[in-house]
Design a protein that fits this description.
With 184 residues, this protein is α+β, with helices and mostly antiparallel strands. 27% of the residues lie in helices and 33% in strands. Strands 1-2-3-4-5-6-8-7 form an eight-stranded mixed β-sheet, sandwiched between helices. It binds coenzyme A.
């Protein structure tokens, strides 16, 4: 498979849905480094429905070895805005602090803008995850809500949002629907 991009010598790929080994490596990375125990169905839901928004980074010394992954999606929000959502982001501890996560987030957002004309991007992260909060806030995300005991480990979450268009600043009640409904 040809990388989508090479940044600082590291290859960034679209996730290969056909490759079982990629799926195994991605689920291992996520289960080892995210506190929330996601079931296999959650991965499949994201990876099969929005494969265009799931990216991996591989180790140039061991080209089949995945060292970072981002899993995201785009859907209409309340029928009035296009909303990107970052579901999971993990970098192998040996490769942290090199800007890989920031590059994966930027890559996802650029493609969401280009392919789906999104109005905003949203995600949740644990209130105690200082690294993730710093990473997202340095990219322009702002805290919109604190969600009490959001995670199974009972930790609270911050909902973070990156507004991209005017629509993202307007109240939902004042926005027209963007969803085509079948005529009755
Ligand atoms: C959070 C995580 C994805 C960051 O990956 P990374 O590739 O090391 O991040 P980057 O190198 O792109 O860092 C970008 C910025 O984020 C901030 N940052 C990242 N990790 C940090 C940490 N542990 N402590 C403080 N700031 C941190 C820094 O400001 C950094 O910019 P700088 O290097 O110019 O100071 C990674 O630590 C990880 O996989 N953690 C476990 C899983 C997780 O928490 N995922 C996010 C859940 S939403």
């Amino acid at each position: 498979m040809v990388p989508m991009k090479i940044i600082n010598g590291l290859p960034y790929y679209k996730f290969n849905v056909q490759d079982k080994d990629e799926f195994t490596q991605v689920s291992r990375l996520i289960s080892q480094h995210l506190s929330e125990p996601y079931s296999i169905y959650v991965y499949w839901y994201f990876l099969n429905t929005w494969p265009q928004y799931c990216y991996t980074v591989k180790d140039p010394q061991q080209p089949t070895s995945i060292i970072g992954v981002i899993i995201s999606k785009v859907e209409p929000h309340r029928e009035v805005r296009m909303r990107g959502y970052i579901g999971m982001l993990v970098i192998d501890p040996k490769f942290r602090g090199k800007g890989i996560a920031s590059n994966l987030v930027r890559l996802s957002i650029q493609n969401m803008i280009e392919w789906d004309n999104i109005d905003e991007v949203m995600l949740e992260t644990e209130v105690i995850n200082a690294g993730a909060l710093k990473l997202y806030e340095s990219l322009g995300f702002v805290r919109s809500k604190r969600l009490y005991r959001y995670y199974l480990n009972t930790h609270d979450a911050y909902r973070l949002i990156l507004p991209l268009t005017e629509k993202s600043h307007q109240r939902i009640a004042f926005l027209p629907s963007i969803v085509n409904k079948p005529a009755v």
